[in-house]
Amino acid sequence: MAYVVKMPKLGLEMKSGELSAWLVSEGDEVTEGEPIAEIESEKTTAEIDAKEDGVLRRVVLAEGESTAPGGALAIVAGADEDISGLEADAGVGAGGDEPAATDDSAADSGAAETTETAAATGDASSVAKQRPSGSDGPSGNGEVRASPRAKRLADDLGVDLTTVEGSGPQGAITESDVEAAAESETPAATDDSGADADTADKRVFAPPSARRLARELGVDIGAVEGTGQNGRITESDVRAAGGASAAATDSAAAAGSEATDATAASEPVETERPLSGMRRTIADRLGESYREAVHVTVDRRADAEELLAAADAADDALGVDVSITDVLLLALSASLDEHPEFNATFEDGVHRLHEEHNVCIAVDIDEGLIAPVVRDVASLSLAELAETRAEVTQRALSGDFTMDDLSGGTFTVSNLGVLGVESFDPVINPPQVAILGVNTIRREAVPTDDGDVAVRRVISFSLSFDHRIVDGADAARMLGTLVEHVENPWSLVIAAGGR
User: Fold this and answer.
1) What's the predicted TM-score (pTM) here?
2) Residue 354 appears among annotated catalytic residues
3) Which pLDDT does position 337 carry in this prediction?
4) Looking at 295, 351, 467, 485, which residue is catalytic?
5) Residues 6+ apart with CB under 8 A from 206
6) Alpha carbon of 36 to those of 47, 54, 200: distances in Å?
7) What is the C-alpha separation between 129 and 152, in angstroms, rounded?
């Protein structure tokens, strides 16, 4: 049975997904359950499996392009099965063309409507860019298909996409196509003397970051030799050129001679690392948090002896691995009961206090920092809490987490104490209004009531909060309550152990 492969919804908060890679090519046979594509959402990645045996007859979305959940990605059907109806459902015409207009005026109208709609909505998933009537694109049907990355690169390099021949699915233009076109458009023109006739006016292929750096270092970017793909100028090239220029100036002043190539060669080698979709999302969300929320952080120490003792006792008594993090979550939940304004989110001007304590636990994975949710902490026994916390953490570390694991949090805990950090300013996880940083446990000499000194283990906390929503005095009281529960955790542990 023929069907349209659609973008799945990987969690309630997913707004769009990017087609990272096709694992099969158009025309290939696919088997039920076989992965055929990789996708990436704002927070996670996943594979799409074939629902039935068949042939990948049409690729609708090219690699690097995005669409909303439910958007068409491809069509799978039998080798000779009629898919015209599915092509219409997917918004494409037979053979990759858009539905044909009935006359020239209708075609012009459709092109204008498409252009105006795209301009009005700013739809990043749009793959068709109409051109004036009478012009014909590389695919011969008057349209340009290019991935968002290819479009951005074309802007950087000054390449006209209407002149580029696409090598992707259905003639879609890829980044490699743009780079190849940029290289072919810049032949070295020479005059009769053999010198470059257009050196001053040659096109420079450099991203904005490299251009900014060139201005800061006083480097003529037109004179820089690019070592990037297809001769693209990188920031390292600019730094090398800046170092060579400085060395030449110093050498000429000291000895009246030119600098050697060794100076440039001595510059440290640097690597450019493109951001993954998840890393870009993390960057965007943290940037949004710092721009929008008014961050203030308050710190406080607590005696950790009873916390450690309670965790050890529970670990022995319950038959499950109980850590100090689990006892800390009990103390935090009890504190949020007394200060519900911190178990909250702030969106669209509304400070929403949540009944359930859905606590996010920050976990460091290769792609960046994510925060899976331990749901309704207050309703869990200590054994259930320890098991649940371990499960969500393990899913995050193994990459088996889903969007549901990352959605719906009301408060976040970030523990850098395991890495020896003594104090830090955690960044709020939007739309939440606060985050608790847990610092390392260390030994300190503490005065006793009888005037003596005892060595005790001490833990400190850093509470960041959005000062637009709660005040510093509120945060101080919240931390004070937390410290009381941390220093006297036994009643919480006993109550949770008996649930």
Assistant:
1) 0.52
2) no
3) 97
4) 467
5) 156, 214, 221, 224, 226, 232, 233, 234, 238
6) 7, 12, 49
7) 14
